[in-house]
TrEMBL record:
This is Peptidase A1 domain-containing protein. Keywords: Membrane, Signal, Transmembrane, Transmembrane helix. The lineage of its organism: Eukaryota, Fungi, Dikarya, Ascomycota, Pezizomycotina. SUPFAM superfamilies: Acid proteases. PROSITE patterns: PEPTIDASE_A1 (PS51767). Residues 1-22 form the signal peptide. The keyword Transmembrane applies. InterPro entries: PEPTIDASE_A1 (IPR033121), Peptidase_aspartic_dom_sf (IPR021109). The chain crosses the membrane at residues 427-446.
């Protein structure tokens, strides 16, 4: 191989290595919604994935809570057989998952066969509990370019407190005390394998009243779903279990003669719950403003037909003025406007005996329970960036076409972390690169050495040529003298050895002929065949 070709190879490798190092950058994963509305305490936009082998399709809610970060939660068949009063139970729960039907389900390493209790202090404090069975299984996204994710921690349950399963989004690795297992999160696995460029996600719940489905992006966000003029970035809270905390400066509504609904508290954003859990004093102001009735048996704010008709006519918009930790001290804030239609929900069995209208508001027992659930995320767009320990809240937008996305990748600011396959590839490339450099250097040295030897040889030949010329001239002179003094001899003597030299003035010296005239090459004749490539062929 010539030095020129080695140079091309080395340059190609130098250009290729940065591509390998940046393999995880500039990547996002946008999940399409299931195009269905599920649930029994409102109509919620879900996202479909496949669990197990063969794959079982389930529709899940994005789980923004830190304690759902490293687990995919699914509903088991008993989750419907226990509730015969639930209409279309399987459909409303986003389908059920049977671990017995999956060949890749495993409880290896889990004590008690993975049987445990839900150990989520945030949701448990809000009354959501139940038994759960943990195991490991595969997950597939409905995206052709995304490979399956194996050995993810999956929690299966039948409780009515979590009617829909969830897809954990937080990369925080949590230890489940019941199962004594620590597993990587879905987001971390995708980042490690190069599926996304950073540890971030963005989500808005969608709005049934506008017939706009939810949006979920991993490794970035969809700029078409947020109002950049009404957006604020907030650092994560110090408590990792309640990282997405907003300061609620005030709440107001826009009907004539309205009074403030309250404010001056911090609330955790959590998609795992449907309602808003607010201070009792704030709930009382909502009761008065919207003519709500608290049902102590159901522990819900039920809405009568008369109150509903009045609210439809007034169509109030509730404005949440929110910000970061300094929001309560007149710091930077934005307004999130939520129309009454977002609060106009229905709830059905088994949570209540018969389907009823209700207002998604709950009375919190303590300040640590203040929560803004999915009802808030109908009108808010949430982007969480775990690489930078901050999140952004914006007013959600509702594009006319779901296909009109403006996806923005948000890469990790740290050095890209390469997976095993990428590391192996880099090692191979470096070895090839080092070998190519060695061969290239050796080739250059050999070329220089060969040139030096050729110069020395040429010089030596020139000297020998000069000596031969001198000897030839001397012999020629002697031959001329002999011819003049003695008769010529026609035959060689059989006794004495005679040396006969050709005359040098008129003939070339045979031993120098190759250096005196151009070389003549003789090659075998080759038949030239013209070949045409097919129009669809690729010439390499």
């Amino acid at each position: 191989m010539s030095a020129r070709r080695y140079t091309v190879v080395v340059i190609a490798l130098l250009l290729y290595v940065p591509v390998i190092q940046a393999v995880s950058s500039g990547k996002w994963l946008s999940l399409s919604p299931s195009w269905q509305w599920d649930g029994i305490d409102g109509m919620w936009s879900t996202f479909e994935v496949e669990i197990g082998d063969p794959g079982q399709k389930v529709r899940l809610l994005p789980g923004t809570s830190a304690y759902t970060g490293n687990v995919v939660s699914v509903v088991t068949p008993p989750g419907c057989s226990r509730y015969p009063a639930a209409a279309n139970c399987t459909g409303s729960r986003g389908n059920v998952f049977s671990s017995n039907a999956s060949s890749t389900w495993s409880t290896r390493g889990l004590p008690d066969g993975g049987e445990s209790e839900l150990d989520d202090p945030v949701e448990s404090a809000l009354g959501s509990t139940g038994s759960v069975s943990y195991g490991f299984d595969t997950l597939r996204f409905p995206c052709p370019d995304v490979p399956l994710v194996a050995n993810l921690l999956v929690a299966e349950y039948a409780t009515e407190d979590f009617w829909l399963g969830s897809l954990g989004l937080s990369p925080v690795t949590s230890n489940y005390s019941g199962a004594h297992v620590s597993a990587p999160s879905l987001l971390s696995v995708l980042r490690h394998r190069g599926g996304i460029g950073g540890l971030s996600w963005a989500y808005t719940a969608g709005a049934y009243y506008r017939q706009v489905f939810g949006s979920l992006t991993l490794g970035g966000y969809d700029a078409s779903r947020l109002d950049a003029m009404k957006s604020i970035t907030v650092p994560f809270a110090s408590d990792p279990s309640r990282d997405l905390v907003l300061g609620v400066q005030s709440m107001t509504y826009d009907t004539p003669g309205s009074t403030p609904l309250g404010g001056g508290f911090y609330a955790f954003i959590d998609s795992m719950v449907s309602q808003m859990w607010l201070p009792a004093s704030v709930c009382e102001r909502f009761e008065q403003a919207f003519n709500l009735t608290w049902n102590s048996t159901c522990e819900l704010y039920l809405v009568t037909d008369e109150a509903h008709a009045n609210l439809i006519e007034l169509n109030p918009t509730v404005t949440f003025t929110v910000g970061g930790a300094d929001a309560l001290a007149d710091g930077q804030t934005i307004d999130i406007d939520i129309p009454y239609a977002a609060f106009d929900l229905n709830i059905s069995a088994p949570l209540v005996e018969k389907s009823s209208r209700y207002f998604p508001l709950k009375r919190a027992n303590s300040s640590s329970d203040y929560t803004l659930g999915r009802v808030f995320l109908q009108a808010a767009y949430l982007f969480a960036d775990y690489d930078r320990s901050e999140f952004r809240v914006s007013q959600a937008l509702y594009p006319e076409s779901y296909d009109r996305k403006t996806l923005v990748a948000v890469d990790s600011p740290h050095k890209a972390h390469l997976g095993k396959a990428e590391i192996a590839g880099c090692v191979v490339l470096l070895v090839v690169f080092a070998g190519s450099c060695a061969v290239f250097g050796t080739t250059i040295l050999l070329r220089k050495k060969r040139s030096r030897v050729q110069r020395q040889l040429a010089s030596s030949l020139a000297e020998k040529d000069a000596i031969v010329d001198e000897k030839a001239d001397a012999i020629h002179s002697l031959s001329l003298c002999s011819a003049a003094s003695t008769p010529s001899v026609a035959e060689l003597s059989g006794i004495e050895t005679q040396i006969h030299e050709a005359q040098t003035q008129d003939r070339d010296r045979p031993e120098l002929s190759e250096t005196k005239r151009a070389s003549i090459r003789h090659e075998l004749p080759v038949e030239v065949v013209a070949v045409e490539l097919d129009g669809h062929s690729c010439s390499i």
